[in-house]
Amino acid sequence: MNKSSVVRMDCKKFPLSRWLLGVTAIAITILAIWGISSWALKQGNRVEVLQASLAPWPEEFSIGMGTETRYDDFYSIMVGTSTVADPSADEDHCLIVVIETPARGSCAPELIDAVVTFTVTPSSPSALREKFPDGATLSIRFDGNEVTVSHDIK
Fold first, then answer.
1. Helices marked H in 63-141
2. For a disulfide at 139, which of 65, 77, 117, 145, Cβ 3.0-4.6 Å?
């Protein structure tokens, strides 16, 4: 190859290009760390991914906002979700958890998970207490696609 056909950029003559290269590398590194951290936090201490059930959602716990889905019970805890049919609503998806009455719930906009967090107590269902000790904190999370349960270890 002859010297005239090779284009070479000398960073000493173009300090701005070196600066842009450095800023770009830092930005890519920060985004990669943030993405991996977000994913790891979502996965951390995951106990189970709940599966949709064929059982109907009980009418007395209906929030009447859209399509409701019941999930397999989690150690005697009833879990359901609702996707909001109204596009003008602030919330996009809801999570309903029935440990004891009244039921607990959480609704969230599209990019945020709906979460119900609770502590296992002596009044919790016996099936739950056999699996988790009193004082254990559990979070049930609905991201609009799947329902997961995580155990917050202290």
1. 126-131
2. 117
Residue 81 tokens read as 């979700």
pLDDT at 65: 65
The secondary structure element, H or E, covering residue 118 is: strand 114-119
DSSP annotation of 56 reads P
Structure tokens given for 141: 């999370």
What is the Cα–Cα distance from 119 to 105, expressed in whole angstroms?
Answer: 15
Would the pTM of this model clear 0.70, i.e. be above it?
A: no
SS percent in the chain: helix, strand, coil, step 5: 25, 35, 40
Rounded to whole angstroms, the Cα distance separating 60 from 63 reads 9
